[in-house]
């Protein structure tokens, strides 16, 4: 198998493997593609991801094929550029970069200027006619190589640079002249010698192979592993390595470097967006050391900056860049994230990829691009990650609320976040694990901070632009972020922070607004999001393309209203126990449970009947004729038992029995394993009067609402935790008889359905039998997961993360369905249920009903609907459409 693919120059770009991300990684595949459509790409080659995997499996050993092919590919670069690698008179310099299938912070990123040594640096100086540039490039190379390849602390080099500037009375790097850089190079070399006991590698081949090995090794670094775990990226993909001829953005004032997006990645607006620096190399822009300038005149004017934009300072190069943007968008039919360099007025493209974007931007771009005819409606639907909608559905800061604005930075990732200030990633993680909401505040972030950024509600940095690490990662994670807030200074040793004049401490609450860049004291109130506009348009398209219905899990009129606003087409699960837990009713519920006999229970139930009925009246009214599945009481009686002394005292007064007696009764009802105890339909079997009362409340409410006119209510009554046909048969009879009684009393007749949850393995296996008694099945995948995996849904959190970390489960099975295992039971139950009763209605109402991967599985089984909590309804609508496409 070919291990290396060349691009640029006269390279042949026809081999599809060269443009296959799984082989040459995202960066490599796109470099090859850009070169093939005639864009100016410096020549280079890509080592395949397969070689990385091979290398890591073979104890860090390069294959002979690889050595041979790299040597050949290097000659391709040399011949194209007309320089030789290691030539003391006119050296070829290369960059070495990693590039996995998906962009992955946490891995070794880039080494620039590789090929410089004590001899070639002089050749570079002579050929470029610029001593300062040559020695600056060399010191950058030593610094980067030592950091990422040799593993030395970059702080050592930064400190030496700071001292060098201080000694000379300089403030900025630009004041350093050729001789200054040259003497710094000597210091850098001394640092390497001192730290490693050996000199900085002078052999350019050794430099190259060292860098290749470092890229491969970085695939298995801790940081990369954390990132993979958080983003569900398999460990066996490996990374490609890209070696490319250097072009220089730091050859004086006609040279520059920049990063750009073809549209605004934060808002989605169709406007070029980016940052650039004159006389600089790529890392200067993203490292946040020099503050970059705006790309376009408009962006500069909007910001009020007086530093010229690229459009103004380098109009020809900018015009060519703009042409390239258009070409790339048309070619890839998506927003591109680009790195470029201008070397002495000539534009070079270093990278392009589909740009990361906020949910808001993803939505706007999908809708806009479809309107522009760049993509079709289906592609637009597929462009938006359903989970990312979450960012849009949640509240934003109330514009009317008072704000104590302490300072302002760049609006790097939208959304509002309030939380306690934490000053490092580890603290963010520990505090958040204790249930605190935190905002991570750093000078700047690096890949080591990823776990803390993930744990935080939002991120605030003192340095770095809109394309800094913090900004890019936060947008990807959907965390609000304000970056480059220069009024912030952090006193890490005192764990304090000043924002302008305000002094704050770690633990103080702040609010950041990622849409405006504002930093505010305390917690600022929020308002509900706007659901019309692009969101409404995309949802409309999704609704046109999905097959499954989307219902909601809701039991309060508020939740029902919210879910309907979000587009729910009915209730898939109304958990009636939530009505029992109501503070005003709990006493009657306890009386019912602690009663010694049926008469006692009926007395308590009589108090609950009107309350339940009025709940159902409200729900049916709110849902206005949409189907409503109401589940009869499910949780273990155990859960309703009084705990506190005051509860026992109150009950003792109401029931006029002694506290001792009540305590004895409570002890009798105590269960060791309540989730497998006296719950679900077992309650209906043992205390039929409970289900009878609930059924009566439902039917009376349905009659009442229907009698008022409007759409007739067709209640769907659902029996939980059924394992046998006989259970369901007994309870069906009870519900049917109750319905008949109510209809006779009210002189009305309504349609209704009786069905069951499938949430026990036995129920799934016996679905053919059970279906004889049921008009519908609803898969209760929470309990089905719990009972199939033998994994307590209430206790598993403590150890489940270890299981996911070790890859025992790819994802938390309570969040994303265990399709391999639990999925088999669902599939089998659907098949047996349908065989026994063609047309039986099938749905899912466990948490998985709001998880896109699980929704795709439901689509593959042809289920009729999914049901999700209100905020997940739009996610489910989009995921269901994507699954159907
Ligand atoms: C389920 O078990 O999946 C379900 C929806 O019911 P509950 O979560 O109320 O047990
Ligand atoms: Mg359940």
UniProtKB/TrEMBL annotation:
Residues the record marks as active site: 469 (tele-phosphohistidine intermediate), 845 (proton donor)
Name of the molecule in the record: Pyruvate, phosphate dikinase
Domain Pyruvate phosphate dikinase AMP/ATP-binding: start-end pairs: 24-59, 65-303, 317-370
Enzyme class of the recorded protein, top EC level: transferase
Keyword DNA-binding attributed: no
Domain PEP-utilising enzyme C-terminal, chain residue ranges per copy: 532-883
PEP-utilising enzyme mobile domain span: 436-517
Gene source species: Croceibacterium soli
Compositionally biased residues, Basic and acidic residues: 12-21
SUPFAM superfamilies for this protein: Glutathione synthetase ATP-binding domain-like, Phosphoenolpyruvate/pyruvate domain, Phosphohistidine domain
Positions with a binding annotation for Mg(2+): 759, 783
Highest taxon in the source lineage: Bacteria
InterPro entries: ATP_grasp_subdomain_1, PEP-util_enz_mobile_dom, PEP_util_AS, PEP_util_C, Phosphohistidine_dom_sf, PPDK_AMP/ATP-bd, Pyruvate_phosphate_dikinase, Pyrv/PenolPyrv_kinase-like_dom
Essential cofactor(s): Mg(2+)
């Amino acid at each position: 198998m070919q291990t290396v693919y060349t691009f640029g120059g006269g390279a042949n770009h026809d081999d599809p493997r060269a443009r296959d991300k799984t082989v040459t990684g995202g960066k490599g595949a796109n470099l090859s593609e850009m070169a093939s459509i005639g864009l100016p790409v410096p020549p280079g080659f890509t080592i395949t991801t397969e070689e990385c995997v091979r290398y890591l499996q073979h104890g860090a050993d390069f294959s002979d094929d690889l050595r041979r092919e790299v040597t050949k590919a290097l000659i391709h670069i040399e011949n194209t550029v007309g320089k030789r690698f290691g030539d003391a008179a006119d050296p070829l310099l290369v960059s070495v970069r990693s590039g996995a299938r998906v962009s992955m912070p946490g891995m070794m990123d880039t080494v620039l200027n590789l090929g410089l040594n004590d001899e070639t640096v002089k050749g570079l100086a002579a050929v470029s006619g610029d001593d300062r540039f040559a020695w600056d490039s060399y010191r950058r190379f030593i610094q980067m190589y030592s950091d990422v390849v040799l593993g030395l602390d970059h702080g050592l080099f930064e400190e030496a640079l700071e001292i060098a500037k201080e000694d000379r009375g300089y403030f900025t790097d630009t004041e350093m002249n050729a001789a200054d850089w040259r003497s710094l190079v000597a210091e850098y070399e001394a640092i390497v010698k001192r730290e490693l006991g050996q000199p900085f590698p002078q052999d350019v081949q050794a430099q190259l192979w060292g860098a290749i090995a470092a890229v491969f090794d970085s695939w298995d670094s801790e940081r990369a592993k954390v990132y993979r775990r958080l983003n569900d990226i398999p460990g066996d993909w490996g990374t490609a390595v890209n070696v490319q001829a250097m072009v220089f953005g730091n050859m004086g004032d006609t040279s520059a470097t920049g990063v750009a997006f073809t549209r605004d990645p934060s808002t989605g607006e169709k406007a070029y967006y980016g940052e650039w620096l004159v006389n600089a190399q790529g890392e200067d822009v993203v490292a946040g050391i020099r503050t970059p300038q705006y790309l376009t005149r408009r962006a500069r004017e909007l910001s009020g900056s007086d530093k010229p934009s690229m459009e103004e300072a380098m109009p020809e190069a900018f015009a060519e860049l703009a042409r390239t943007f258009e070409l790339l968008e048309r070619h890839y039919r998506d927003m591109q994230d680009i790195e470029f360099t201008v070397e002495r007025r000539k534009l070079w493209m270093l990278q392009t990829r589909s740009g990361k974007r906020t949910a808001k931007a993803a939505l706007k771009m999908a809708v806009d691009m479809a309107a522009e005819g760049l993509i079709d409606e289906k592609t637009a639907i597929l462009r938006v990650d359903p989970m990312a909608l979450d960012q849009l559905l949640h509240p934003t800061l109330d514009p009317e609320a008072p704000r104590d604005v302490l300072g302002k930075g760049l609006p790097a990732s939208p959304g509002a976040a309030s939380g306690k200030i934490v000053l490092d990633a580890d603290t963010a993680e520990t505090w958040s694990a204790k249930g605190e909401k935190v905002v991570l505040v750093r000078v700047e972030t690096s890949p080591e901070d990823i776990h803390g950024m993930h744990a935080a509600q939002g991120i605030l940095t003192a340095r770095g632009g809109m394309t800094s690490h913090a900004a890019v990662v936060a947008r990807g994670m959907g965390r609000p972020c304000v970056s480059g807030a220069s009024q912030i200074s952090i006193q890490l040793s005192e764990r304090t922070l000043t924002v302008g004049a305000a002094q704050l401490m770690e633990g103080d609450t702040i609010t950041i607004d990622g849409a405006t860049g504002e930093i505010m004291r305390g917690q600022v109130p929020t308002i509900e999001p706007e659901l019309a506009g692009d969101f409404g348009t995309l949802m409309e398209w999704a609704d046109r393309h999905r097959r499954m219905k989307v219902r909601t899990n809701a039991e309060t009129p508020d939740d029902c209203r919210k879910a309907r606003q979000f587009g729910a087409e009915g209730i898939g699960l109304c958990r009636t126990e939530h009505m029992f837990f109501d503070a005003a009713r709990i006493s009657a519920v306890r009386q019912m449970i602690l009663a010694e006999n049926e008469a006692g229970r009926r007395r308590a139930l009589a108090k609950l009947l009107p309350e339940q009925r009025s709940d159902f009246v409200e729900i049916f009214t709110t849902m206005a004729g949409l189907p409503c599945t109401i589940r009869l009481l499910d949780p273990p009686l155990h859960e309703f038992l009084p705990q506190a002394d005051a509860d026992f005292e109150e009950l003792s007064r109401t029931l006029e029995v002694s506290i001792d007696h009540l305590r004895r009764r409570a002890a009798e009802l105590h269960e060791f394993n309540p989730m497998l105890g006296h719950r679900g339909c077992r309650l209906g079997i043992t205390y039929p009067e409970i289900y009878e009362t609930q059924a009566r409340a439902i039917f009376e409410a349905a009659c009442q609402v229907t009698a008022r006119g409007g759409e007739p209510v067709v209640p769907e009554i659902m029996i939980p935790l059924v394992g046998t046909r006989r259970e369901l048969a007994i309870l069906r009879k009870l519900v049917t008889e109750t319905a008949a009684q109510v209809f006779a009393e009210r002189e009305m007749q309504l349609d209704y359905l009786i069905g069951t949850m499938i949430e026990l393995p036995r129920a799934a296996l016996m679905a053919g039998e059970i279906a004889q008694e049921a008009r519908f099945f609803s898969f209760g995948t929470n309990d089905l997961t719990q009972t199939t995996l033998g994994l307590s849904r209430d206790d598993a959190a403590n150890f489940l993360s270890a299981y996911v970390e070790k890859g025992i489960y790819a994802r938390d099975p309570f969040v994303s369905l265990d399709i391999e295992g639990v999925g088999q039971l669902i599939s089998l139950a659907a098949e047996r249920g349908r065989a026994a009763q063609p047309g039986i209605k099938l749905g899912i109402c466990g948490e998985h009903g709001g998880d896109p991967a699980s929704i795709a599985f439901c689509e593959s089984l042809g289920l009729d609907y999914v049901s999700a909590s209100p905020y997940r309804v739009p996610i489910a609508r989009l995921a269901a459409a994507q699954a159907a496409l």
